[in-house]
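Reminder to self: tokens first, then the designed residues, so the page reads top to bottom the way the pipeline ran.
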């Protein structure tokens, strides 16, 4: 999971973390990165799209068994996004 404290957002930290992860993947000779994003987070989806990620069309239910803080009030859907690293 990649997350930046809301009070520290808009300072370029997320962009730097993502660039670092992408560079690490390139060093491991990966040619693409697949991520999942909560479907309702349209602003976050747009943020990834501005960085070259595209929606693949695949969707997954959020794994409820990993909810440390209880069951969500509504179903959470994750969408897959992908970026070619070439």
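Designed residues (86 positions):
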């Amino acid at each position: 999971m990649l997350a930046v404290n809301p009070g520290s957002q808009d300072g370029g930290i997320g962009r730097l973390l993502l660039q670092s992860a992408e560079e690490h993947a390139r060093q491991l000779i990966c040619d693409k990165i697949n991520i999942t994003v909560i479907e309702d987070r349209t602003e976050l989806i747009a943020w990834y799209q501005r960085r070259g990620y595209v929606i693949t069309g695949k969707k997954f239910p959020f794994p409820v068994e990993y909810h440390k803080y209880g069951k969500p009030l509504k179903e959470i859907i994750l969408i897959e996004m992908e970026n070619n690293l070439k």
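The chain has two helices and three strands.
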